[in-house]
Amino acid sequence: MPQEKHFHRRNLPHLYYNEGIYFVTYRLYDSIHPTELEKLQKPLNPETDEEKKKFFKKYDALLDRPYNNVKYLLVSEIAEICKNSILHFDGNDIEVICFVIMPNHIHLIFELLNKSKLVGDILGSIKKYSAREANKYLDKEGKFWQAESFDRLVRDEKELYNIIKYVLLNPVNAGLVEDYKDWPHTYCRKEYLVL
To answer: Which pTM does this prediction carry?
Structure first.
């Protein structure tokens, strides 16, 4: 099957191929103040990889200072729901490489295995299931995840190494633990462990 690509735009551009390794970040609804997000998106359309990295660092810094103190993912039962929703697709549609469940967002790295499914559809299924189950647990209704996610096709092995390292160290860099091994909601496939 030849490589196909699918492009769509909401607030962020999304370019999905039907193969490859993806780095995705999705966050809880209302976890970044709308004004801060608007300021961040003003100079959107970063062209170079360096501009994209700067954008992501600013975006991730906002996530580490949660607006409205939205931290549902610290509840171990909800973190477990999220973990199970990701691992449900492991070995079928995707190969899960690494993820970390932070207090209000999730970083996920995976390789697309099912070339007939779009990354956005797989991610949509993960988010839909976990939102429904988390809302049930919290006895609440309404939006759980922000509709849009940050995603990036990983270009090469060096970039993959750096992203895995970033994901594993996110709880350390956010001041939640001193050693990444102490964060209970981290997963990395053994052959990809870089630390």
So the answer is: 0.83
User: What are the tokens at 174?
Assistant: 């956010």
Query: What pLDDT tens digit does each residue of the chain (195 aa) get?
Result: 445 554 444 444 445 566 899 999 999 988 776 777 667 666 555 566 677 677 777 777 777 765 566 789 999 999 999 999 999 999 999 999 999 999 999 999 999 998 888 888 999 999 999 999 999 999 999 999 988 888 889 999 999 999 999 999 999 999 999 999 999 999 999 999 988
Between CA 117 and CA 126 the distance in angstroms is 13
> How many CA atoms lie less than 13 Å away from 52 in the CB half-sphere?
11
Here the tokens at position 5 are 């690509």
Superfamily of domain 5-192: Transposase IS200-like (3.30.70.1290)
Token pair 């199970």: residue: 84
Here the tokens at position 165 are: 């390292």
DSSP character for 152? E
- Phi then psi dihedrals of residue 109, to 5 deg: -120, 130
